[in-house]
Amino acid sequence: MKGKLTITRSFYFDAAHSLPFHDGKCKRQHGHTYRLDVTVSSFVGSEEDVDSQLLQDGPESGMIVDFTALKQVVESWIVSRFDHGNLNNYFSSPTCEVIIIMIAERLVEPLKEKRVILEKLDLWETIAPHENKCTLTLFPPS
Ligand SMILES: [Zn+2]
Prior knowledge:
24% helix; single chain; 5-stranded mixed sheet; binds zinc ion; Tetrahydropterin Synthase, Chain A; alpha+beta
């Protein structure tokens, strides 16, 4: 059996932004609770490629990556920088699309160091009951 195994962890951060070019109320500064789902993968079951199998030793034995390690990467590179901040400090027009692309660029390498591939990001600009979500599927996965 060979396959690609994915795991996903959700993160939340609160941030302010305004969309200066928007033709509506989003032009005014306001805040959101953002939800970010980070999906990473590793191939499993390949006898030819030992590195792509589940980790065999230590505290991550039986995993592709420890959820705690995933949490540390995303919190240090994304959440700690954006939480309770103003996204206009990073982007001229911080739309969901612009933000998610920058998040991907920041996470690819640190996740590679954890031996997993960044597959997909989902970024909710608002959460229930009015959900606006943006998805970036990396092709090919980085
Ligand atoms: Zn907004």
